[in-house]
Design a protein that fits this description.
five-stranded antiparallel sheet, 3 domains, Beta-Lactamase, GGDEF_dom, 14 helices, alpha+beta, PAS domain S-box-containing protein/diguanylate cyclase (GGDEF) domain-containing protein, Biofilm_reg_signaling
């Protein structure tokens, strides 16, 4: 029995595989041992924009960019000859229009020819660039966090404005690769004060910008000059200053407090610089941290001052008076020198306070405090002992020297005060207690009691009197 095969049409295998080759998802070509192309598919021709006759007979190397040609000769060819195969070699193809196409090449030596598969790596290259950019952002972020952590530690350890400024300048100079710089304090005075860094930056401290974003002085608005062109655009003065100090770029970042600018961080660069957003943000972040630390030091200093000074008059309070008096007694005893204290009470103050009101009374006490501070010798200390009583510590002062100070006290208090009405007068009763060398030093309390008793003796004798006792 004979079984007849069904009449099935056979595909043209040769045409099918030829079509598959020419329209494959990758470029395919074949070269001889010298790298001359003898076969190429349509995909490669489409990607390159070249005609078949422009490719066949040409060395594969000559279709690559200059950089890829160098890599082809030094890495691709040696590896292919030694191992007979290369995988995922990144090269760049020069298209007919001159543009570049990133490609990945797989090649294998088969007999006397080399079979090459070419893949378009445009998307992969874009992904790798995005990955690299993300990695760089992460590295910058990590570096920024590390810098700010170091700054936080250093600023927390700072105990003075100067030590804080030194730490700020060192960290900022290293992190931002500055040639030099300065930290300048502008608080409470029209003349900026250098806390740390280079004095030669002084001509920049008071500049004002001319662009809308830089309209204020350096210590109120951040100023950025990246090159001499920026400097010239701002003003010829800025450009001349940079030339004179041999710098080409600078930044000035304000240190802001709750009541305005405290100072500024000035960084100098010997070559022109391009500051990206991350760099400028680091400037501001360091300045913010330093400003907070400066605020902490200010608050700490103010609390210490308040603990030792009378809030109304600003003079030393009892705590500071006792501290100064203890030191004065110790020095007088150890060095064998005289010392005196002057205790005074204001005559007529109660009538002023009751008759004109506490506001006027407070003003009078402030005026008296200022006048007392103005008649002291260098090294003397005056403080408000309480109410309308004041005490002056006079080191290295015998009875005669203390009497001269007491007479100036009487005279200055008797001067008219505009805030008082004509029917009110102010004077002082003064007691002086002197310690003479050669005698055992008295206790602090004994010295104060003696001066207080002397003051009451003066008060009993009439207004504006001075009584002296020796211990």
């Amino acid at each position: 029995m004979t079984i007849e095969e069904p009449n099935i049409e056979r595909p043209n295998t040769e045409g099918f595989f030829e079509e598959l080759y020419h329209f494959a998802a990758c470029g395919q070509l074949s070269t001889d041992v010298d790298g001359v192309i003898n076969v190429v598919n349509g995909t490669f021709l489409e990607w390159s924009g070249l005609a078949r006759e422009e490719v066949v007979g040409v060395m594969f190397r000559d279709l690559l960019t200059r950089g890829s040609q160098l890599f082809y000769e030094t890495r691709y060819q040696p590896v292919l000859k030694l191992g007979g195969e290369v995988r995922e070699v990144a090269l760049e193809l020069t298209r007919a229009d001159g543009s570049r196409l990133p490609i990945l090449v797989n090649a294998k030596v088969v007999g006397g020819s080399t079979r090459i598969a070419v893949f378009d790596s445009t998307e992969r290259q874009g992904y790798e660039r995005e990955l690299l950019a993300a990695r760089r952002v992460a590295e910058v972020s990590e570096s920024r966090v590390r810098v700010l952590q170091d700054a936080s530690t250093a600023f927390l350890a700072a105990e003075t404005d100067e030590s804080l400024a030194d730490a700020l300048l060192e960290i900022a100079r290293d992190a931002l690769i500055a040639s030099d710089g300065a930290v300048v304090l502008h608080e409470e005075t029209s003349t900026p004060r250098l806390l740390a860094g280079a004095q030669f930056t002084a001509p920049l401290w008071g500049l004002r910008g001319t662009r809308p974003d830089q309209a204020g002085p350096l210590y109120e608005e951040m100023m950025v000059v990246e090159n001499m062109r920026d400097a010239e655009a701002m003003s010829s003065e800025v450009a001349d200053i940079l030339r004179s100090i041999r710098m080409e770029a600078f930044t000035a970042t304000p240190l802001m407090g709750t009541r305005g600018a405290l100072g500024s961080l000035v960084l100098m660069f010997g070559r022109e610089r391009s500051f990206d957003a991350a760099s400028l943000d680091l400037h501001r972040a360091l300045a913010r941290q330093a400003s907070l630390a400066l605020g902490r030091l200010r608050l700490q200093a103010e609390l210490e001052r308040m603990a030792l000074h009378d809030q109304l008059t600003g003079l030393a309070n009892r705590n500071l008076l006792r501290e100064r008096l203890t030191l004065a007694l110790d020095r007088a005893g150890s060095e064998g020198r005289a010392m005196s204290i002057i205790f005074l009470d204001l005559d007529g103050f109660k009538a002023i306070n009751d008759g004109l009101g506490h506001r006027v009374g407070d003003v009078v006490l402030q005026i008296v405090a200022k006048r007392l501070a103005g008649v002291l010798r260098e090294g003397d200390t005056v403080g408000r002992f309480g109410g309308d009583e004041f005490l002056i510590v006079c080191e290295q002062a015998d009875a005669e020297a203390a009497m001269l100070v007491a007479k100036r006290v009487i005279a200055t208090i008797a001067e008219p005060i505009a805030e008082m009405q004509d029917d009110h007068e102010l004077s002082a009763s003064v007691g002086i207690a002197c310690f003479a060398p050669g005698n055992p030093p008295p206790s602090l309390d004994a010295l104060v009691r003696a001066a207080d008793a002397a003051m009451y003796s003066s008060k009993s004798l009439g207004l504006g009197r001075i009584t002296t006792v020796a211990l």
